[in-house]
C-alpha cells in the first residue's frame, strides 16, 4: 500500500506563477490580431508546459 504524500507548496506556487503568462498568451491567441497570435502560441505553450510539469511534480513529490 502506498503512503499518502503531501503537496510541495513551493512547486505549486511556482506553477501558479507560471499560469499568469500562460493565460496572457491564451488571451493573445484568442483576442489578438495576427501579429500577436504567433507570440501568444509560443508563450502559451512554454508556460503552459511549465504549469503542467511543475504541478505534476508538486503533487508527486
* Mean pLDDT across all amino acids: 89
Judged by helices, strands and strand pairing, the structural class is: mainly alpha
Query: What general outline do the C-alpha atoms trace?
Result: rod-shaped
Helix content: over 70%
Instruction: Say how many strands there are.
Output: 0
Distinct helical segment count: 2
User: What does the main sheet amount to?
Assistant: none
The sequence of SSEs as H and E is: HH
Taken as a percent bin, the fraction of beta residues is under 5%
Rg calculated over all Cα atoms:
15 Å
- The rounded distance between the terminal residues' Cα atoms is 17 Å
Regions with pLDDT < 50 over 5+ consecutive residues?
Answer: none
Amino acid at each position: 500500500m502506498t503512503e499518502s504524500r503531501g503537496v510541495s507548496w513551493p512547486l505549486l506556487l511556482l506553477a501558479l506563477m507560471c499560469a499568469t503568462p500562460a493565460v496572457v498568451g491564451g488571451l493573445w491567441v484568442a483576442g489578438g490580431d495576427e501579429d500577436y497570435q504567433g507570440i501568444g502560441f509560443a508563450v502559451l505553450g512554454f508556460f503552459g508546459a511549465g504549469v503542467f510539469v511543475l504541478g505534476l511534480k508538486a503533487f508527486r513529490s
